[in-house]
Write a structure and sequence with these properties.
Shape: globular
Order of helices and strands: HEEEEEEHEEHHHEEHHEEH
Largest sheet: 4 strands, antiparallel
Number of helices: 8
Helix content: 40-55%
CATH class of the largest domain: Mainly Beta
CATH topology of the largest domain: Jelly Rolls
Number of domains: 2
């Protein structure tokens, strides 16, 4: 909610109650009937959806300053996804009644929330397009390029995506398999675009990453099978 006016931001932060979550705690559960709205004041959460085999797939990330749960408050429908703390997280939790009253009292705030929801929808559409074609390396490069624009912090090696992401998480975001993530990361490392650390990726050369992301035919073929682990 960085685009709220100072007065509206202060008014919103006075609403509701502070709730703290530890890593792995569930903030919102898919299908739940509750319509509370959570403003993230610290931390990071993963938005995941259930799939037919009983597992979950990572849909999005949300960080400090963003709202979660606002769609159910606006349309009164059950939760469409589960939200899980990716690290210790603090929220300001509001009932839908309080949240909607806040929006009625401030047209400017209502417009900011409307633009935020529209932006999330546009982002979801863009994500579907980015992961609908190209090699696994190109898809992963597009995913990392999008992540680094929103969730990066500067470190000596470059720009670190400041969210703990497993290979399975990256696979879900890029629309590829876990094995393809490993091969694609190997390609990106060889190109000098990234380095990898445990549950993390550092973008060494954003321009190289962006160039790869923009070339739907790069490389002509992904590398072969990974060597067997010992």
């Amino acid at each position: 909610m960085a685009n709220l006016s100072p007065d509206d931001r202060d008014a919103l932060l006075r609403q509701g109650r502070v709730v703290r979550y530890e890593t792995g705690d569930v903030l919102i559960r898919e299908g739940g009937p509750e319509t509370t709205v959570l403003l993230l004041t610290d931390g990071c959460v993963k938005v995941v959806g259930a799939v037919e085999d009983g597992g979950t797939v990572l849909l999005a990330l949300r960080v400090r300053g963003e709202l979660v749960g606002e769609v159910s408050a606006l349309d009164g429908q059950p939760r469409s996804a589960t939200v899980i703390a990716a690290r210790p997280t603090v929220t300001r939790t509001l009932t839908s009644t309080v949240f909607l009253a806040f929006l009625r009292e401030s047209r400017d705030a209502a417009e900011v929330v409307q633009r935020s929801v529209a932006g999330k929808l546009r982002g979801a559409t863009r994500h579907r397009i980015d992961t609908s074609g190209g090699t696994a390396t190109v898809r992963l490069a597009r995913t990392l390029d999008n992540l680094v624009r929103s969730y990066a912090r500067a470190v000596p090696e470059g720009l670190r995506i400041d969210v703990p992401l497993s290979h399975t998480d990256l696979a879900a975001l890029a629309g590829i398999s876990d094995a393809s993530v490993q091969r694609a990361l190997r390609s990106l490392r060889a190109a000098g675009a990234v380095t990898t650390k445990y549950r993390g990726v550092v973008i060494r050369e954003p321009d190289i990453l962006r160039a790869i992301a923009s070339q739907s035919g790069w490389p002509a073929a992904d590398p072969g099978p990974l060597p067997a682990s010992g």
